[in-house]
Amino acid sequence: MTDSNTMVQREQLLTASQQLTAWGLNKGTSGNVSVRTQQGFLVTPSGMAVEAMDAASMVHMQWDGTAEVGKKPSSEWRFHRDILQAQPNANAVVHTHSTFATTLACLRKRIPAFHYMIAIAGGDSIECADYALFGSQALSDNALQALAERKACLLANHGMIATGRDLPHALSVALEVENLAEQYCLALQVGEPVLLTGDEMRAVFAQFKGYANWD
Question: Thinking of the domain 3-208, which architecture would CATH place it in?
Answer without folding.
Answer: 3-Layer(aba) Sandwich (3.40)
